[in-house]
């Protein structure tokens, strides 16, 4: 798997705090996100233990987030309640956000996860192109 974007020293430092399996899940999701939306910008939020992917450093322009935990990662969607989810993968009870637990590389590679990422891209406004 070739990374679409280089791994910065900041990203390496951030990921070094997690177990290798969790780091690999986060990196695989990162690759999947960039494959689906190459224009995405990566943001590292150390305090929140997450990587954000969007078009600008504003919540409005965030496509998704990757939240790292001890044994898994969550792929979060700020507009998850508005996304189609025929497989019932999305979890959460918040007003807008939903997430999918990612526990294995097979989860990252699932077509249903790609479909959720594509739906998130389509729902996220690009700066200057908002209605």
Overview of the molecule:
With 131 residues, this protein is an alpha+beta fold. It has a single domain (9-121), classed as Aspartate Aminotransferase, domain 1 (Alpha-Beta Complex), CATH 3.90.1150. It is built from 4 helices and 5 strands, in the order H-H-E-E-E-E-E-H-H. Strands 1-2-3-4-5 form a 5-stranded antiparallel sheet. The mean pLDDT is 92.
Low-pLDDT stretches are none
Proportion of residues in β-strands = 15-25%
Give the oligomeric state of the chains in this entry, treating copies of one chain as homo and distinct chains as hetero: single chain
- Give the N-terminus to C-terminus distance in angstroms: 36 Å
Number of helices: 4
> Helical percent range?
25-40%
Form type: globular
* Alpha carbon gyration radius: 14 Å
What's the number of structural domains? Answer: 1
* CATH fold name: Aspartate Aminotransferase, domain 1
Order of helices and strands: HHEEEEEHH
